[in-house]
Write a structure and sequence with these properties.
By secondary structure, the protein is an alpha/beta fold. It has helices spanning about 10-15, 20-25, 30-40, 50-70, 105-115, 130-135, 150-170, 170-175, 180-190, 190-200, 215-230, 265-280, 295-300, 315-330, and strands at about 45-50, 75, 90-100, 120-125, 135-140, 205-210, 235-240, 255-260, 285-290, 300-305. It has a 5-stranded parallel β-sheet with strand order 2-1-3-4-5, with helices on both faces. Helix 11 (about 215-230) links the parallel strand 6 and strand 7 (about 235-240). The two termini are about 35 Å apart. The structure holds 6-O-phosphono-alpha-D-glucopyranose. 6-O-phosphono-alpha-D-glucopyranose binds near residues 51 and 148. 6-O-phosphono-alpha-D-glucopyranose binds near residues 98, 99, 100, 343 and 347. Keywords: Aminotransferase, Cytoplasm, Glutamine amidotransferase, Repeat, Transferase. It catalyses: D-fructose 6-phosphate + L-glutamine = D-glucosamine 6-phosphate + L-glutamate. It is found in: Cytoplasm. One of its GO terms (biological process) is protein N-linked glycosylation. This is Glutamine--fructose-6-phosphate aminotransferase [isomerizing].
Length: about 350
């Protein structure tokens, strides 16, 4: 068992550490993706469909396709897809994101979409049902993922979606930058000792908020999902600008707030939201650039990222400490993060 885990205490921790390599392997799909894109007809709409962590990867896709490619993009939960299926047509590219390629809700939606739209499946498991039924397939090259909570497959999904959107947008500079993402992830993993200490400090909290804007909003949602899945603590991922429309009423000194604040367009506004929750007593755990002195001075805990990284690519890197935070909180709480209660790796019922 220990051998299978490569010396790590859990598969999840092993898989978190495998992420730079998973992304590196997935980046090798670029040529195939470019060829696929060359043969695409002109789409006037993109529609992502997924569940769970794969849904959060899809949310990043919306920002990429609308922000860089300029194609209107929707993101639908697979279990809600049937209520929107009527608006699909042959000019729609429906993109199904699934680690397993076997999730029942996702497969059902894929079958419905196949009747009208062009379908593309982004899947980790070779030969799985989704790969056999979709019109086009891109594989995430994360290797087998054993831990129930998705980690390395998520960053590989994000990588595929980036490669696809950047290829469609002809963003050659960002396609060069993305080659350096595995190095940024390695640096992010170096914060593990600090994160373990933060986990010890906050392990008894009953509620957590995770906030971010734009590209960092899905990261906040994924951070909250990881927390729920493996620590059984209530976590909410919120668009930072939406806090004032309700959740601010829940913030007090018992609620830690994790703020995802990379350098970029949304930085200053999220910083403002961070100050708002701080004024209401919250402990703030901030994720941001090691050069960001203002953020450092505002946060109670600061998880730092060194090196320059375009905000567009930041979701692939900034999720890493959030996975580690949930992992270590899970272990501190005496939970087996590989086998969270009530959850399955692959859900084959609707
Ligand atoms: C289950 C897993 C999640 C996963 C979701 C979607 O709920 O526990 O980790 O994100 O299914 O799975 P898929 O294989 O379609 O990505």
């Amino acid at each position: 068992d220990m051998a299978e885990k490569g010396g790590y205490d859990h598969f999840m921790l092993k898989e978190i550490h495998e992420q730079p390599d998973a992304v590196k392997k997935t980046l090798m799909e670029l040529q195939d993706i470019k060829e696929m894109v060359e043969n695409f007809p002109k789409f006037n709409r993109i529609c992502f469909v997924a569940c769970g962590t794969s849904y959060h990867a899809s949310l990043v896709g919306k920002y990429l396709f609308e922000g860089l490619v300029g194609i209107p993009t929707d993101v639908l939960l697979a279990s809600e897809f049937e209520f929107s299926a009527g608006a699909l047509d042959e000019k729609t590219l429906a993109i199904f994101i699934s680690q397993s390629g076997e999730t029942a809700d996702t497969l059902r939606a894929l079958r419905m979409a196949n009747e009208t739209a062009q379908t593309l499946a982004i899947v980790n498991v070779l030969g799985s049902t989704a790969t056999r039924e979709a019109d086009h397939v891109i594989y995430t090259r994360a290797g087998p993922e054993i831990g129930v909570a998705a980690t390395k497959t998520y960053v590989s999904q994000l990588t595929c979606i980036c490669l696809l959107a950047l290829s469609m947008a002809g963003e050659e500079k960002l396609l060069e930058d993305i080659q350096h993402v595995p190095d940024h992830m390695k640096l992010a993993l170096e914060a593990e000792d600090q994160i373990r200490e933060i986990a010890k400090k906050y392990k008894d909290a009953e509620d957590f908020f995770f906030i971010g804007r734009g590209y960092s909003y899905p990261t906040a949602m994924e951070g909250a999902l990881k927390l729920k899945e493996i620590t059984y603590i209530h976590g909410e991922g919120y668009a930072a600008g939406e806090l004032k429309h309700g959740p601010l009423a829940l913030i007090d000194d018992d609620v830690p707030v994790v703020a995802v604040v990379p350098p970029g367009d949304s930085h200053d506004k999220t910083l403002g939201n961070l100050q708002e929750v701080k004024a209401r007593g919250a402990s703030v755990i901030a994720l941001g650039s090691s050069d960001d002195e203002v953020l450092k001075s505002e946060a109670h805990e600061m998880i730092e990222f060194s090196g320059e990284l375009n905000e567009v690519l930041s979701p692939i890197v900034y999720v890493v400490p959030l996975q580690l935070l949930s992992y270590h909180m899970s272990v501190e709480r005496g939970i087996d993060p590989d086998k969270p209660k009530n959850l399955a790796k692959c859900v084959t019922v609707e």
